[in-house]
Amino acid sequence: MKKVSSKDIIVTGFAVFAMFLGAGNLIFPPHIGINAGSAYKQAFLGFALTGILMPLLGLMATGNTDGSVSKFAEVVSRRFSIIFNILVLLCIGPMVAIPRTAATTYEVGIVPLFGELEWGTIFGFEISRIVVSLVYFILNYFLAVRPSKVIDLIGKYFTPALLTLLIGLIVKGIVSPIGVPGNPQVDSAFALGFKEGYQTMDAMASMAFGGIAIAGIKKFTNDKREIKRATTISAIIAATGLLIVYGGFIYLGATGSIVFHNIARTEATVKLVEAIGSNIGKIALSISMVFACFTTSIGLITTISNFFTELFNGRIKYEKIMIVVIVMSFLLSIIGVNKIIVFASPVLNTFYPTTIVLIILNLLRNKIKNRNIYRGAALGATVVGFLYALAELLPKGNSFQSFLNLLPLGEMGFAWTYIAVITAIAWVVAGKIFAKKNIENKLK
Predict the structure, then answer these.
(1) 3-state helix, strand, coil in the chain (%, to 5)
(2) What gap in Å lies between CA 20 and CA 17, rounded to an integer?
(3) Residue 333's Cα: distance from chain center in Å?
(4) What are the beta bridge partners of residue 125?
(5) Which pLDDT does position 441 carry in this prediction?
(6) How far apart are CA 39 and CA 259, in angstroms?
(7) Using CB atoms within 10 A of its CB, is residue 123 exposed (0-12), middle (13-18) or buried (19+)?
(8) Is beta strand 121-122 parallel, antiparallel or unpaired with respect to 125-126?
(9) What is the C-alpha radius of gyration for the chain, rounded to an integer number of angstroms?
């Protein structure tokens, strides 16, 4: 058995960390800390569950699917897998995540350094934002056109620079804090962190990034056990990096909770870093943001283009699909970060619970043989997630929200956790009853 070297595992782990550390990972933690204040530890715990633990488990689960995005949801059914994967990949790709990386690059990477570029507007959109997004996606095209080079490019060059800049900001903020954490601005800091973790989309992206990591590892070995070992260690390295950055930025946000409040997420991140590191901090953040956004968008463009190339059995070439993904992402990126976040929220409420359920089931897929468990659990999580999405879209006090509030943990957004278990059990029981009836009918 040929073992993957420690160096190659570290490079892979760094690359996965950098792909996860995209736009959401740098604009959401400060916002959480500011709103959680003195309850930042509870908020971090909630965020860590959906933003660190689930992506870690998701990466490990891809080891049981041989890195295949399609197989991830096939534990439910082939048809469900196709529909689910298309919707999820569109969400973490050209509909939300990739456009958000470009919009964040402009708002947190360019504007803080050069100010608002008053170049006028066209069709109501800022020309400066359009130009920056256009340049951003042209660079993405040239970096993603050779997907085999993604792991080496990101792991060896982008990540060390990114980590150095971010850790420098965190250490500066800890040594010279802005102030002391103020009173929490939310009823439940844990629920805030948990739900904000949805917006990172990291659990959903884990099945995609896991595929990239495994493809990189397969260059060194074909042994399944060794691939699984290397993937697990790489996942732990990536999760450790996220733990440091998330924890650090949530704490920094908490120290500025008295000074900053009721401001947009991107503005909160910029002002927080300015208060910590002045102009040097602002430059470091801008560079970090550009690196983080590039690494994430490159990874997503590569994965999504590969998925649709396989879905169409190669009838549509990788490069053509990649161009479509990039063009869609460019067009949506010019609406701005906050509008993208608002648009994404109900979509994520629908699919994030299902994704978490599928991650857990894929980790156990070698032990759970009854397909009805997968079907029932996925159904329960998806239906309740969809109800949460409807409750958010409709005016406050709507009947969907009232119904969810009556359920245990419903008001906090966690009703899907036990309903998925109940529906899984119900589906298994129903399956046995129907099977018994079929046998009895055959005997008659």
Answers:
(1) 80, 0, 20
(2) 5
(3) 17
(4) 122
(5) 47
(6) 16
(7) exposed
(8) antiparallel
(9) 22
Residue 155 has pLDDT above 60, yes or no: no
What DSSP element (H or E) covers 434?
helix 416-443
Best CA proximity match to 108, nearest among 37, 31, 32, 185 = 31
Tokens of 173: 């903020």
* 22-33: pLDDT as tens digits: 655 777 888 899
Q: How far is CA 264 from CA 16, 139, 338, 419, in A?
A: 28, 28, 8, 34
**What length is written for the chain?**
444
Can you spell out the DSSP letters for 225-248? HHHHHHHHHHHHHHHHHHHHHHHH
Burial class (CB in 10 A: 0-12, 13-18, 19+), 274: middle
DSSP 38: G
Write the DSSP assignment of 90-130 as a string of letters: HHTTTTTHHHHHHHHIIIIIIHHHH------EETTEEHHHH
Is there a contact between 282 and 273 (Cβ–Cβ < 8 Å)?
A: yes
**Residue 432: is its pLDDT beyond 60?**
yes
Q: Is the distance from CB of 239 to CB of 52 less than 8 angstroms? A: yes
Tokens found for residue 12: 């892979």
Amino acid symbol at 130: I
Contact predicate 232/214, CB 8 Å: no
Span 165-203, pLDDT tens digits: 778 888 888 888 888 888 888 888 998 998 888 878 788
Beta-carbon contacts of 46 under 8 Å, excluding residues fewer than 6 positions away, are 189, 190, 191, 192, 193, 194, 195, 196, 197
Q: Do 299 and 208 contact (CB within 8 A), yes or no?
A: yes
- Residues 423 and 377 sit within 8 Å (Cβ to Cβ): yes
Q: How far is CA 13 from the centre of its chain?
A: 16
Structure pTM? 0.79
pLDDT at residue 439, rounded to an integer = 54
Evaluate whether 288 touches 269 at the Cβ level (below 8 Å). Answer: no
* The token pair that represents 328 in the structure block: 């869609």
DSSP letter, residue 149? G
Token reading at 15: 């690359």
Find the range with the poorest average confidence among 40-54, 244-258, 359-373.
Answer: 359-373
